[in-house]
Amino acid sequence: MEYEIALIGNPNVGKSTIFNALTGENVYIGNWAGVTVEKKVGEMEYDGKKFKIVDLPGVYSLTANSIDEIVARDYLINENPDLVVNIADATALERNLYLTLQLMEIGADLLLALNKMDLANNLGISVDVKKLEDILGIKVVPLSASKKIGIDDLKKAIVEAVEEKRKKGENLKRKDKYSIKYPHLETYIKRLSSIIEKDEALKKYNPRYLAIKLIENDEYINEMVKNSKIWKDLEPVLNDIKKELSKKYGEPELAVVEERYKIIDRIVKDVVKKTSGKLTTTEMLDDVLTDEKIGTLLIIPFLWMLFKFTFDASKPFSEIIQYIFASLSTFIKTSISNKFLASLLADGVISGVGAVLTFFPILAFLFFAISFLEDSGYMARIPFIMDRVMNKFGLPGKAVIPMVMGFGCNVPAIMATRTIENREDRILTILINPLLSCSARLPIYALFAGALFSKYQGVVILSMYALGVILALLTALMFRRLIFKTSPAYLIVELPQYHIPHLNVVLKNTWERVYDFLKKAGTVIVFGVVLVWFLSVYGPSGYLGDEVFNNPNLIAHSYVAIIGKMLTPLFAPMGWDWRACSALVFGIIAKEVVVGSLAMLYGAGENLSNVIAHAFSPISAYAFMAFCLIYLPCIATLAVIKNEIGWKWALFAVAYEMILAYVVALLISVIGHFLFG
């Protein structure tokens, strides 16, 4: 028999760390049915029993305003898992218990995992676990997941909880099994529950939960109950209750919120003690780092140091990879007698993928630095600091999170907009996200910056990231005024405690991001560079031969040359030849393909930097980088835009980005030649 266990908690409580500790490598990832929200499911074996561990999206509540909340809510009330493990942050119990109370309302079989106990102790926060268990009526397991303390206790508690439920052999979901009550609402809840219990179709739900949700005016529950047999009896009672509560609280749902927080305040006073009244390290650092002026200015040197570290640390590793692929290419050409196959492998796969993987160390060290800042707690401050600026450009505060994620990859960043409740705010955030420089563009920047701006490599690349942010903000402001004429929502974001990053967590996050890049290198990029190779060695006259990459006159008769030459007049003001234009076309597959395409089209392979230095001027190179930053999203990004907000907005994104990319590249070329000749 396999038991199903759900993990749920607020964002940043260490849920992923606990999920990984429970499941190890036995994990598969997909999407929840009907939505693009990631679904992580793992397997755990303990004490001779098998468990299916479902990692629910991180949510602050089950109000179901966002897609994440809808996914979590629907799973909990419809799938009825054997146990729900609610992970809470011991340093922020006030905020975390709000979700706990909602889980109790649903009637879930609950276990509370109190994480970050080590951090709480360091902050002088003491939590009386036994008293918390007595008040809530559920098992509470203290642990420090990042230090692997208490994980075995959690596993034992999970086993004990499912065994106890199996022995009772009853559907506890229908019963009011928790002692937590809302004094000023209990009369109303009982009146509604007594009517709800009469409907057989609703008996699989906790009537107390349905009653509370009706008072809160939850749309999903309203529709469900309206279609039931008891609605005629229930409606007049519900209307009377809402009128009574409106007189006292203004809105009935505010009554429920207020009652929950009263209970939470009382619990926290009883179980949490602060033994230190001194300023914490986090408070002292935040006085400076989150200051409106100083904090904003400090972001620039922080990011500059990040890029400086990335390129200085990665340089020797990139040179080693470059040497390995150059040797491999030579070996293949000399050892394989079939010239067609040798050219396909050496000039196509090895040359293209090798050129991209030369930048693999750069990405690895960049992801390491970002993961380091994330685990330290500083990365969460950047959205908070920039929120004041964001609102001035018409963007909702919650858009900052997807924007920050966009520096890694636009695909998950666009998916992250599902936490934005307002549809117009969400569409606007999605439309400007592809302007933020994802990691796929980094190999292009690294190539051109290293070839033509070697002394100022870090500054030039940082300027590309800055250009993307500036264009995203200006575009958002324009769209807000011309298309979306509503005010953006405010940001609510959690600021975790600062702490020394855990190396194992940083390395795991780095590996997951690097692995995504490697998967692309092995699939999309290989497909892209092989496609370029075929279009390069074939033309209207047929197969041109393997000498095509060493003979400029020969490759000029290929299909890829025809495509590039058709575009050359359009890009003549920028000073790009047909090879550069052709590479841009293949960059639509994935931005990394641009580097591999250039390597093959110039017949350069691993010596691409030297060739680029002669084929481009600093001005034309900078314009090319800017164009690559802005123009068409990659196929994967375009697909997720279509899935999230529809074809109309996806095509709109394509159109405006192409126009914007051309205008910006043209301005760089014109102004650059005017200033520098």
Automatic annotation (TrEMBL):
Instruction: State if DNA repair is listed as a keyword.
Output: no
| Signal sequence interval, chain numbering | none
Under InterPro entries, the record lists: Fe2_transport_prot-B, Fe2_transport_prot_B_C, FeoB_Cyto, FeoB_GTPase, G_FEOB_dom, Gate_dom, GTP-bd, P-loop_NTPase
Domain FeoB-type G per the UniProt entry, residue ranges: 2-164
Q: Per the UniProt record, which residue ranges are transmembrane? A: 348-373, 393-415, 459-479, 517-536, 556-576, 583-602, 622-641, 653-676
Pfam families membership: FeoB_C (PF07664), FeoB_Cyto (PF17910), FeoB_N (PF02421), Gate (PF07670)
Q: Any idea which positions bind Mg(2+)?
A: 20-21, 23-24
Listed GO cellular component terms? plasma membrane
Q: Where in the cell is it found?
A: Cell membrane
Read off the NCBIfam families from this record: feoB (TIGR00437), small_GTP (TIGR00231)
What is the protein named?
Ferrous iron transport protein B
